[in-house]
Amino acid sequence: MPAAVAALFLVLCALVQPAGAQQPPQAAVQALATAGFGAKAALLEQIADSGEPWARPVLQALLDGDLKMRKADGQVVLTRPAADGFALYDPIDGQELGQAGRFDLKRLAINNALRGQLRTLIATLSLGDPDPARRRAAVRALYDEI
């Protein structure tokens, strides 16, 4: 009987995810809108480690200040300058989401530590790029971080 209880306990422990369990990478992008700087560092690592083709462009957009939160619904969007403010795009699939004025958006805050982390992650992801020029630029960027 004690062995059965122990086995049941182990099965239940395996089914329960820890509170800090990783979320899908798409959810990690959305979580950047409300996370503090420490949590953002972990989210950036998760996005970079996802292996998704959109990971590097999303990280670059955050570094460039082009990843913002739409105030109306809290959605994280990729922005590009447009005639009447900004054109909005889904950061994952690139789907056009309309336009918004600059006061309708909130820039996602990053500090200097996150900027350094972003540069390193982007350069690391770029090392696997099929374009030799991008790989050379990635090596230079990593060298500059040393």
Automatic annotation (TrEMBL):
Keywords: Signal. Residues 1-21 form the signal peptide. This is Urea ABC transporter permease subunit UrtB. It comes from Candidatus Macondimonas diazotrophica.
